[in-house]
Design brief:
heterotrimer, A mainly alpha (338), B alpha+beta (533), C mainly alpha (301), B: 533 residues, alpha+beta, D-Maltodextrin-Binding Protein, domain 2, Dipeptide-binding Protein, domain 1, Dipeptide-binding Protein, domain 3, 3 domains, 4-stranded antiparallel sheet, 14 helices, 24% strand, globular, C: 301 residues, mainly alpha, 67% helix, 0% strand, flat
Chain lengths: 338, 533, 301
């Protein structure tokens, strides 16, 4: 019984933390975006703003709710959000939610798949390289991986298009699917190959190399010697001990990297003309489309905060040292686990 | 034991994470699946489907965006342009003009239907022109064209009477404006109506679906069109925001037709899988100066002389790869313009230096001209995604720097009129009636964003608008060209060709038409096009 | 070994000096073995070339040689010209100045902020730490590109310092988190506790005890932040938000390369890309060496 209430308490705490974080985030972005120079009215009315009289301008501002002081604008905005109204997109002149909703799926597919592929491959590569530290294999992979990581994403994307779409004509160069084939998984996959390749190549090594180094540090720990004397096989040691020990690092890196990969979709979306919210967010920032920008930032923010909360919970389970947040003060010393 | 439990927990959480991600992805895909299942009744055979790679769109409404292809083929106006750019009847069966009362009487075609099946009547025409003349919140770059209209009335369902305050030679051109349906838009704010994303028109193609997730707008031919029904069943307009992507889409077979800048278009020349259509356009580029800024308030006498320091032919040869020519007048390609006498600024640095000395400029130590202690230094804003304009600005800046004038190029995402830049890299066109230049050059007109003001130009353009005789108009506009050249607001640089590239199976594009700004108007005869993929 | 044995049988007399065995004097080659000499040489060459760009360049980098469009590399234009007749060779050296400056400035700014923040957060008590980390979490949940866009639109006209500042200020979150988690693991070590007991001030503690212990963990990230800053600059150029058009950088050259892809002028595409990637690789290689230097223990596996 008591345990149950503790769990509920914990969950409530997390939810409260989440809500507070989201509100903070929205305040930051709301104020920040309105500090930027540029006239939102012009995004909405185009050049008509030039020939409007002062009265018409005031009326227009009132209609768009731009005449109030910022804190009132914010209060209005936040009370509307509880009714699911995120305001009008100034550029598209329709509710922001309507602009975003058809594109979320595309980005989730691209971002989600590349996220999984990146981490799967990163851990795999890290183990391969760490096992063969300083061998020819390790060195080659290190060099190639680093080179791939540093090649600017947009440049890599265009080269891939040139080779695979234009010269070889194997894969489509743009879009998320062909006309009338939005439900065709194969067609979608074909369109995904190149953007995915760019996403994976440009993110993979950053993580793989971090994991590799983490593993190498781990190999220098004393418990490895003990495990070896116990007669455990290399693979067993790696999977049973090393990986578990570096899991907190991997998981917290995975949590941070959600933003990294979400913002990485922008370049891929731009180069391959893949409709998604990555490209949309940058566009909305460029055009001072406040309401759209806020909504997009909140969506990505929610994603990241949730994933980091999950990571935190996992880490607490694996490594009690991480619980210090709650109980341990400066002087108390915790026992090292394992 | 404990360890095992932990591992179990760990794997469960990981699995949940993975599951939620893929679930989200699947949901996205599933939703679209249902969508497409219900909408695409004609199947997905694309052999007679034209895929056009165009700019990104936010609204489709002839009144809001008059620089685009889509409103042109979804909507239709009282009049339309023939291949020479002359207005002929379209939704109107015939019209009469009463010279004494400046009144047009249009007899409308009888069995025209909106794409949603409603009857098209005179009410829609009245509604459209009332929006154009009375709605204050409208994008105003075109409303000046309709300011002569005093009343629009419909005595019956198929007659419209439009009264003007004065004779307006270009009025028939302006009657080409697409008519919007009253039954869908009455009482709505035209700027935000959801109609703008779900347009219903009377034109050759009807709007089917705006598939934002697929980045395309799908149109099907209007079987009930009142004139020739197009050959091509379906047009897919793919929205593309990066210029080079349009070229790669053509190359990889993801698009059948696109407008490319000269640099990209040139890479398709000689490729037998593609055909390059070189349209002439009345679209020119120049440096348009903002007369509200302090620098030009003080120095507006020194704009024209800059022309002498710019070797425009080099710009045409390099940036445009020869697809264009040197500009000297904003009406150069217009049927009423092209007065060679307005070409008064040859490239000659000696002349430039002499004129600058006459204007009172002297070179300082760094070789930059100064007058009254102020350097000849001005800023020009250019939108960063328009490669051609950025290149032109950079080269011009380089050329006049050598002559002793500093022009600073500032890249912006959208033009910022409040930041105090001294000008911007202008693009514009007057492909139809020369009166199209009225809105840009007359003092305080709706398209005159740079506040150019010249009494003689005002007078001539007003006279041209209200004169009926063609020869007389021609001489008026010729005079305007000279007057403008003497005291220009825009340093004209070059006219651009409209380089369209299509797959070789596409036939019927007619390059006899002079196209407009951004080479708009290519689809003017789309009903004649044929596609053999 | 044999020689050594022989030496031992030398006669010792009154003028005997302390014997110094020959083989203990390492040769130049041995001393350099294992060090990234090649990378250092390449980096020094590139740096020198950029430094002396004015002497190396045989054309004005900002000029358009409109009579020499799209020329392949030749004796006049060593690396060819682009579609507007700009000399790639001269641009590379001038462009390098801007890019390398941005890389280093961006790295310094983000490292200083990230390390300080991470150390404070890692050593502070639970509540402060939680707030600080939550703040980072919130801000870093905005995609970095968006954050940069927001900053760029606030700043108005760009220059090299502003762009490095924007890149640096938006690039320290990951570093701060890693520093913090490293600090949390070592903050309870005896030597740290001892130092604190003796009344060490925070800056002293940070520089003397904390930083040396997590350098190996962050060095790769710090060094790669030079490269990330340089790549970020090129991405911004690609988005049209980079340096003003009259300042040449490798980033702006690469985004020009993007336009040349269809016209088969390989030198416009390959050469700037190659130089950028080589520079970044060389920097990372050197970073890698230092990482190993601090962690020479043999693997137990």
């Amino acid at each position: 019984m008591q345990r149950k209430t503790r769990v509920i308490q914990k969950i409530l705490k997390k939810v409260a933390g989440f809500v507070i974080a989201m509100v903070c985030l929205s305040i930051i972005v709301f104020y920040f975006s309105r500090l930027a120079p540029g006239d939102p009215l012009q995004s909405f009315y185009g050049d008509a703003v030039e020939s409007m009289s002062t009265q018409e301008l005031l009326a227009a501002k009132e209609r768009l709710g731009l005449d109030d002081p910022i804190h009132i604008q914010y209060a209005k905005w936040i009370s509307n959000t509880f009714h699911g109204d995120f305001g009008m997109s100034l550029k598209y002149k329709i509710p922001a939610m309507e602009v975003v909703s058809p594109l979320i799926g595309n980005t989730l597919i691209l971002g989600g798949i590349s996220y999984l592929v990146v981490f799967f491959l990163a851990i795999f590569l890290a183990i391969c390289c760490a096992l063969n530290e300083d061998s020819l294999f390790d060195r080659i992979i290190c060099k190639v991986g680093t080179a791939a990581y540093y090649i600017p994403t947009f440049w890599l994307g265009v080269v891939l298009v040139l080779v695979f779409s234009i010269n070889l004509n194997w894969l489509p160069s743009s879009g998320a699917y062909d006309f009338g084939k939005s439900g065709d998984v194969l067609n979608r996959l074909q369109h995904l190959v190149l953007p995915l390749a760019v996403m994976v190549l440009s993110h993979l090594w950053y993580y793989a190399y971090m994991f590799r180094n983490k593993l190498l540090d781990e190999f220098r720990r004393d418990y490895i010697l003990l495990a070896k004397t116990k007669g455990l096989a290399k693979v067993e040691i790696i999977f049973k001990h090393c990986l578990r020990n570096i899991a907190p690092t991997i998981i917290s890196i995975m949590a941070i990297s959600t933003t990294h990969i979400v913002s990485g979709t922008y370049i891929a979306e731009a180069v391959f003309n893949y409709p998604g919210i990555g490209a949309l967010s940058v566009e909305s920032a460029k055009y001072h489309d406040y309401n759209l920008l806020l909504l997009l930032v909140l969506i990505t923010g929610a994603l990241v905060i949730i994933s980091s909360m999950i990571a935190q919970s996992i880490n607490e389970v694996i490594d009690p040292r991480m619980k210090e947040l709650e109980a341990v003060t400066w002087r108390k010393r915790t026992k090292t686990s394992s | 034991m404990n360890r095992k439990k932990i591992m179990m927990k760990l794997t469960t959480i990981m699995l949940l994470l993975v599951l939620s991600l893929s679930l989200g992805a699947c949901l996205g895909a599933k939703k679209e699946k249902e969508d497409s299942g219900s909408k695409t009744t004609k199947g997905t055979d694309t052999s007679n489907t034209l895929v056009y790679a165009g700019e990104s769109e936010d609204t489709i409404n002839p009144i809001l965006n008059n620089h685009n292809e889509l409103p042109d083929i979804i909507f239709s106006g009282l009049m339309k342009y023939d291949e020479k750019g002359k207005p002929i009847v379209n939704l109107a069966e015939s019209f009469e003009y009463d010279e004494s009362t400046y009144t047009y009487t249009f007899n409308l075609k009888k069995d025209v239907k909106w794409h949603d099946g409603e009857d098209f009547t005179a009410k829609d025409v009245v509604f459209t022109y009332e929006v154009l003349t009375k709605d204050k919140t409208l994008s105003a770059s075109i409303t000046s064209n309709y300011q002569d209209i005093t009343s629009v009335t419909a005595p019956d369902d198929y007659t419209v009477i439009i009264k003007l305050s004065n004779y307006n030679a270009a009025m028939l051109d302006y009657f080409t404006m697409g008519i919007i349906p009253e039954h869908l838009l009455k009482g709505e704010d035209i700027n935000t109506a959801s109609f703008n994303q779900h347009p219903v028109g009377t034109g050759r193609y009807k709007f089917v679906k705006w598939d934002t997730g697929g980045g395309m707008i799908i149109l099907e031919k209007n079987e009930n069109y009142y004139d020739k029904v197009p050959n091509i069943d379906r047009v897919i307009y793919k929205t593309v925001s990066v210029e080079s992507t349009k070229a790669t889409m053509l190359q990889s077979g993801d698009a059948d037709l696109a407008w490319l800048n000269a640099n990209y278009a040139e890479s398709f020349r000689g490729n037998e899988k593609f055909e390059k259509f070189d349209f002439k356009t009345a679209d020119y580029r120049g440096l348009s100066m903002d007369f509200e800024t302090d620098f030009w308030k003080k120095n507006k006498d020194s704009i024209g002389v800059l022309n002498n320091a710019i070797y425009k032919q080099d710009i045409v040869d390099s940036v445009l790869k020869g697809n264009g020519f040197v500009a000297y007048s904003p009406l150069q390609l217009n049927a009423f313009g092209g007065n060679k006498a307005a070409d008064i600024y040859p490239y000659d640095l000696n002349v430039f230096n002499k004129k600058m000395a006459e204007l009172g400029w002297t070179k300082n130590k760094e070789g930059i001209y100064e007058r009254n202690g102020e350097k000849f230094h001005f800023t020009i804003q250019v939108r960063e995604y328009e490669e051609e304009r950025v290149d032109i600005a950079n080269i011009v800046s380089n050329m006049i720097k050598e002559a002793g004038v500093e022009m600073e190029v500032v890249l912006v995402t959208k033009f910022d009129w409040d930041a105090g830049y001294n000008g911007f890299l202008y693009g514009g066109a007057a492909q139809f009636d020369p009166d199209m230049s009225y809105a840009s050059f007359v003092t305080d007109a709706s398209g005159n964003t740079m506040h150019y003001s010249n009494a003689k130009v005002d007078e001539l353009l007003n006279k041209g608008r209200h004169t009926a005789d063609e020869d007389e108009r021609k001489s008026i506009y010729h005079e305007f060209e000279v007057a403008y050249a003497e005291q220009p607001g825009i340093v004209l640089v070059a006219y651009l060709d409209g380089n369209y590239v299509g797959i070789s199976g596409l036939e019927g594009l007619d390059t006899s038409r002079v196209l407009g700004h951004h080479a708009v108007g290519v689809m003017w005869n789309i009903e004649e096009w044929k596609l053999n993929k | 070994m044999a020689e050594k044995n022989e030496d031992q049988f030398l006669m010792v007399h009154a003028n005997y000096k302390l014997h110094i065995p020959k083989q203990n004097q390492p040769s130049m080659w041995k001393r350099l073995k294992g060090k990234p000499i090649l990378s250092m040489i390449v980096l020094v060459i590139i740096l020198l070339c950029c430094l002396f760009a004015g002497h190396l360049a045989n054309h004005t980098p900002s000029s358009f040689y409109l009579k020499n469009l799209n020329e392949p590399p030749n004796s006049e234009f060593f690396f060819g010209t682009d579609s507007l007749g700009r000399d790639i060779y001269s641009m590379i050296w001038y462009g390098g100045r801007a890019s390398i400056t941005i890389g280093i400035l961006g790295m310094v700014i983000s490292t200083v902020i990230g390390v300080t923040y991470g150390c404070i957060s890692g050593t502070a008590n639970g509540k402060v730490d939680a707030v600080m980390m939550r703040a980072v979490e919130i801000v870093s949940s905005i995609p970095s590109l968006l954050l940069i866009l927001l900053f760029v639109s606030l700043m108005g006209k760009q220059d090299i310092f502003k762009i490095s500042l924007v890149i640096g200020v938006t690039g320290w979150f990951a570093l701060a988190r890693i520093v913090r988690s490293e600090v949390k693991q070592i903050r309870n070590s005896e030597y740290v506790v001892a130092a604190r007991c003796m009344g060490a001030k925070f800056p002293h503690l940070m520089v003397k005890h904390l930083i040396p212990n997590f350098v190996s963990a962050i060095l790769f990230i710090v060094i790669s932040s030079i490269s990330t800053s340089m790549t970020m600059e090129s991405t911004l150029s690609f988005l049209g938000l980079g340096l003003p058009v009259d300042v040449i950088s490798w980033g702006s050259m690469l985004s020009l390369a993007n336009r040349a892809l269809l016209s088969n002028t390989w030198w416009v595409i390959i050469i700037p890309g190659l130089i950028l990637v080589i520079t970044l690789l060389v920097i990372t290689d050197i970073g890698n060496y230092f990482r190993k230097e601090t962690n020479r223990k043999a693997s137990n596996l």
